[in-house]
Design goal:
Layout: H1 2-15, E1 18-20, H2 31-36, E2 38-40, E3 64-70, E4 76-82, H3 87-93, E5 112-116, H4 128-134, E6 144-146, E7 160-162
Parallel strand pairs: 3-7
Antiparallel strand pairs: 1-2, 3-4, 5-6, 5-7
Amino acid sequence: MAWLQRSCNVALRASGLLRTTLSTANTPTTVNSVCSTATRFVHSTAPAKHGGYEWEDPKSPDDVVTITYVDRDGEEITVKGKVGDNCMYLAHRHDIDLEGACEASLACSTCHVYVENGFFDKLDEPKEEEEDMLDLAPFLQENSRLGCQIVLRKDMDGMKLVLPRASRNFYVDGHVPKPH
């Protein structure tokens, strides 16, 4: 049974979550007694927001990507994001009214935007799931995309995203959901 004790010891230590308190006595032992003498540690971390990466500042000036959102009133809001930012979560960080009810899980079209300035062709091709959700978006245009599926790259510097005049959601009129 020594091999069993060593195996359990190695597995428990390798996991990093358990610490063993096994004795080194040469007494016969069983699997249950080997594993029941282990102490389990519980780890916790600070709560994270969805889109947590977008809440971080760029680490270098080379990573900065400037984009402009045009809200429903026509006001232009220019923000500095970074390479790898999701445009929906970046809008949330800067209190731009781009909803995102499904939190980027491709289950709604509330983050629908129009991509302006010739940047539409620079975006990756949309997945079939994104196209399905865009079919549900009101006021669909040729340059429509879901903001949650646009991830910034350096060649997108200067991109302009226009919010449509309405989005479709199942909330009661007037309710404005807040990001989690």
